[in-house]
Known about the structure:
The complex is a heterodimer of chains A (about 350) and B (about 800). Chain A has about 350 residues and is of the alpha+beta class. Chain A folds into two domains: about 1-90; about 110-335, BirA Bifunctional Protein, domain 2 (2-Layer Sandwich). Chain A has eleven helices and nine strands. In chain A, a hairpin with a 2-residue loop joins strand 6 (about 240-250) and strand 7. Chain A is rod-shaped and about 135 Å long. The mean pLDDT of chain A is about 90. In chain B, strand 19 and strand 20 form a beta hairpin. The longest helix of chain B is centred in the last third of the chain and has 19 residues, at about 790-805. Chain B is elongated. The chains are: A alpha+beta (about 350), B alpha+beta (about 800).
Amino acid sequence: MENRIRELKAQIEDEAAKIASLDELKEVRFKYLSKNGAIPALMKQLGSLSKEERPAAGKVINEFKVWATELFDENEKDLANKALLKRYEDEAIDVTMPSKTRKAGHLHPVTLVRNELIDAFTGMGFTVFEGPEIDDDFHNFTALNVSADHPARDKQDTFYINDDLLLRTHTSTGQIRALETMEPPFKIISPGRVFRCDDDGTHAPMFHQMEGLVIDKNLSLCDLQGLLDTLAKTVFDKNTKTRFRPSFFPFTEPSVEVDVTCCECHGAGCNLCKGTGWIEILGGGVVNRKVIENCGLDADVYSGLAFGTGLDRIAMLKYGVNNIHLLYDGDVRISDQFRK
Amino acid sequence: MYLPMSWLKEMVDLEGIDAQTIEDSLFSCGLEVEERKPVAPDVDGIKVGVIKEITPHPDSDHMVICIVDCGEYGTDIQIVTGAPNVNVGDHVPVALPGANVYARKKGDDSGAHEVMNIKKGKLRGVESNGMLCSGEELGIDDDWYDGAEVYGIMMLGEDALPGMDVKEYLELDDEVMDISVTANLPHCQYVYGVARELAALLNRKLNAPDFTYTAKKEANNNNITVEVKAPDLCPRYVAHFVKDVKIERSPVWMRRRLKMCGINSISTFVDITNYVLVEMGQPMHAFDMANVAGEKIVVRRAENGEKIVTLDEKEFTLNSENLVICDGEKAVALAGIMGGLNSEIKDTTKDVLFESAKFERGNIRRSSRALGQSSDSSHRFEKGVDEYTTGLAMDRALHLVEELGCGTVSATHVDADANPERESQKVVTTFSAVNAVLGIEVPTETIVDILSRQNYTLEIDGDNLTAVAPAYRTDIEGTAADLAEDVIKVYGYDNIVPKFMTNAVITSGGLNKKQKAVNKFKDCLVAQGFNELINYSFYSPAELDLLRLPEDAPERNYVKISNPLSENYSIMRSMLAPSVVKIVSHNMKRGNESARVFELANVFIPNEQPVATIPTENQRFAFGIYGEDEDFFTAKGVLDAIAQEFGVKFSYEKETKPFLHPGVSACVKCGGKKLGWLGQLSYEVSDDAEITKKCYFGEIDYDALMKLAEESCKYAPVSSFRSVKRDLALVADEATTCGEIETVIRDACKAVTDIKLFDIYRSEAIGEGKKSMAFAITFAAGNAELMPEDCDKYVTKILKALEYKIGIKLR
Lengths: 340, 811
């Protein structure tokens, strides 16, 4: 019996060393440990031994069985590990190969600027008021105190549908439409498309503006500067400064142009600001009494602040686009660049 | 406008004030100095020299050796010159070594100049320490200095002393400011106006031009009459008769000033009108009295078809929109724009009739544009002229006639003034109202000082303030804001203190639902890889032809622009798709392999034709896609993703459009309403649009979609049990659509949550004209595990319905 065990042990060790796969291991394990395998067969031979010999022999066989089981378990663990490693190795990839992604889309730069401004203003208590793109002479000119012989009314500058209807030349129409429909006090911004008869290197016949209007009591030029100062700091950065200089719009008095410190050189002077350190981005003023009266409000009670800016211009400054026509080109390689 | 610094300094005492301060002061009141240009920017280092001695050049017969006395720069300077006109004792301009002068560009026959730096050198072996200069080398002509155009060296007067700076001697050390003036300040569009403003700003003395003259009464007094038949277009017309005129060269000071303002000197009378235009901002005209028939001036609207030939020999056919100046017989000038050739000033002119008038700016502008004829006068009238200055300018012109001694100022003066009692604008307000506009407290005495300096006449009673504006101010509307503006420009905008609307009521800001929905809509597309487009709101009717839209298509009912830039931008968009097709084509031509683009914008729908009321603006969404991974179903997926985001369900029915592939196009419906369309662009249209790949477009009515979109959404519990999937292979006729089968399946069994067609198979065994369609159907579990028997029951129900309703069997 002991010889037989020694023999089998050597045989198992020999075979186990040669096992290369889990399937082979299964076969070998079956050969020795299954019901009819070589080791249970040894058990069956116990019957031929004397009663006295049986316990010791049984113990030896059992120990042998435990040894074999452990050996195969060990082997199995080892093989499983190897198989896993091999799988990892087989599945290894070249991580530098191109990625698979659906390319992200992008909003139009004017929309991005518009959203940013809307964000800043709505935070200051403004609502967004959108007027029609085709409007009439009254809302675009007359109510805004633009005199009958003002050059802006020329066919040269304004697109007309008929003698009265026109493509709005500014979003200032929003001032009038808001004054007509809203109960003061209110604060609105009115962004949108505007149109002028100009198409050359620096002008597009359509572009975007955003008008702002505050109607309340006791508003002054100081409030306007405070408001626009806050705005400039939001849109550009917190160190941006604003400067007023006199200007003229028929619907505000006093009227001011608002310069902000150049976003490129922060006031030192560069190409963008033509060396002045300032760039002009806004116009505004204290709403002319006539405009308030034209809309049926008591100008002795209510006062207003109005301002307007060009969204295309801010987009161009912000993204370093030097030609307005690029904003309307539509080539996805251009629009892909406007991410925030 | 151009403004010579020397002229400004003559009118305002600017002693001790530098050019930058002047520029800053003007800027603060709305007059922007765009450029300050030296009169002779490139020439320097030229001194006066007196020729002491001339000896022949040993090696040249056309050159001579001069010894020149340049005072402090050397009294015995040897200079060689080839000029033929030098003599001992001549006072000449000398460019010493280091000086810069103009020289003809070498090898350039156009007469263009470049700057030449003078160095010591040798001319044919003889040392030359500089150069004697011609007028051309100094960059000047006879208008600037008599004799500047002489062949050879320019001779200076005996008052030019050795060593003097020639630029100073010739007044070339001046500079000209180019100023842009805002539209509300016509009273600052001329030299006197700017001087007046600057004097007020800096609180310096103003030296007004001399307006005096002495009219000579004649024995046989002329009986000139002026009749203004269109006082609405010509509120004031002043005429004055000048006798025995001398048409000759103007004096050098006048020629120089005109030149600095960009005007060529012609002769005394033309120069005087131009001088007054620049100085007083009043366009004037001078008629040759010999050509004014009937001693009569009539200002009237032109007859339709009336013709006139202007000074520049151009003929115009006029209509009643144009204003003309006539004599007793004919039109002699196109009012405010240009004089007639028939009455122009000639060398032989004996008597002159001066005109100083105010013409309405709107009419001048319209006439000028309509006729395509403009002049310095018409530009000036377009900016606005005030009647007060109209009278003053005539006085100034007559003074200049006397000063130049070029004619006898007669007593014949006619002033046709439609409103001789004209009153200056009056502002009745309070000091506190003025300060309320500004938001700061400007002291009362400061306000009084600042307004007085600007020639307001003030009446003060405590806080009450009555201010009468000077007659030349046409921009005053009579409000406290007018005064606030005039105060702050002098007081300084720097004094405005930013306040964050401390008096204003708190208002709640933010976007409304509609505006938020737009953002969400766009975000949904951007998340699907779309780039947003903004296209012009107008295009050409040819865009609709390209899409082969029939004459009766609703999109052919569009809004027309009456004065488009060109046919290309002549109608307002009635649909967005043509713009998107164009962009897709553009991207393809640029070699971009794929693109997803969209636009959300208004189309314009007339309420009637011809358009009489503000057209309806309808927001549309249009998109275009192309690329390797795109097909009809990715396009449809774009819309379904939107539908899902807004809580609606789209259905699609086969329907085509004249510009779509007849087999790959559909209409998009929602809640039984047609919202739009999608499909592959037809091959014919693709060819015309130079589109070489398959591409897919869609357009839907955004406003209609938003009306159907859910108002709000509520949570619905999800089952914690697994749903079960069953695959069914069905044999159907070729004509049966996936949509029909899906509808039957859904209607048959409420437990179905998802149906997906995953395979179509055709074979002989299935039969001619038949197809096998494999569907994966998902059944939802309720509040218990879904048992196989339940699913069997569902399937049986579905199969029965399929067979009964559309004759479809299990394969």
